[in-house]
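Quick start: read one record
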Amino acid sequence: MAGTYASLARMAQVFVYGTLKRGQPNHQVMLDGTNGSSAFQGRGRTVEPYPLVIAGQHNIPHLLNLPGRGHCVAGEIYAVDDQMLQFLDEFEGCPDMYQRTLVRIEVLEWEGERSAPEETPAADRIVQCFVYSTATYLPEWVHLPYHDSYDSQGEHGLRYNPRENR
């Protein structure tokens, strides 16, 4: 059991809000062991509001790095190893398209293992997670509709164009 706690302690927490969530078009990369290890921990939302927009010719969700504007954004928390974190950096075009930053996330539901016996995030607890947001966006994106959650099949009608179709 101690080995489990030690290995979880070395894993980073990542908050995903778009196509990497369960049931979304790119979720399979989170499950592919050749990319590294990831474990679903729970659901949460950003403590601060951020603009979540769907933009570009492929209708990609983008979290604009403008804290204080928009909505508190819902998503999922994952524990990932260094290999998966490096894969996600490349997958997300970090640092050009997205930048990986630490953001405070309010835990809504927790299913994950704890990193130490006394560290189980309860609902309403705040955790620090890496998130892929962007400060490198077109100026007009600020004027797009802001969303509080993302679903590729959502009422917004903006269907995500998967990478394999581009």
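The longest strand covers residues 99-110.
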